[in-house]
Each structure stands twice: as C-alpha cells, then as structure tokens.
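Data deposition worksheet. Section B asks for the primary sequence of the deposited chain exactly as it was used as input, without tags or linkers unless they were present during the calculation. Section C holds the resulting structure in token form. Section D is free text for depositor observations; keep each observation to a single sentence. Incomplete worksheets are returned to the depositor.
Section A, Depositor: J.P.
Section B:
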Amino acid sequence: MRDSDIQKLRRTGKRMLTAHFEVRASESLFSHGRIGVIVPKFGRTIVERNRLRRQLREIARTVVLPDIGKRDVLIKALSSAYGSEFTALRDELAQIAQGFGGKAQ
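Section C:
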C-alpha cells in the first residue's frame, strides 16, 4: 500500500481495537484485498521490531488475506504485541479478519 492509501485508511476505515492491535479496514477500490503492517518502535531494538514485523507479515499473508475478500486492512501493532507468542498473535488476527465480515465482496 502507498502512504496516501494508508493515511486514508487510518482516517476512514472501520476500527477494531484488541489487546495487541489496532486494525482498520475499508472496502478496496481494487479487485483484491491489500494489507499494510505498521510496527512502531516503542523503545525496542531494531532486531525485536523486525522480528515482530516479519511475524505479522507472515500471519497477514497466510491467515488474514484469504479471509478479507475485497478489503484494505491496516494492522498496527501495540506495545503489548512485542511480548506475545506467535500463536497468540495469529489467533487474534484470525478473529479480527472474521470480524470484518469474512469473505465479504
């Protein structure tokens, strides 16, 4: 996603807040869904940040993208996500994807 797409999604997307994420979603103008991932530093090392970003991108690719249909989704990690296990993050994002309407077209 481009920066302008991310900014628009942050302003106008439907918001869901969980223990580890702030997620925004809206209908895509394209024929397919797109996902953006934001991982703020929160005083962590670059190694920790990159590890979390890689985990979230993998979860987004394998779990979230197949369920979002024709939606744009922006996933922003909260500071609590740094201390969480991969399976907990995966399960939470799977629930979020279903909360945005599943395979809505």
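Section D:
Residues 41 and 86 are 18 Å apart (CA to CA).
The chain has a mean pLDDT of 90.
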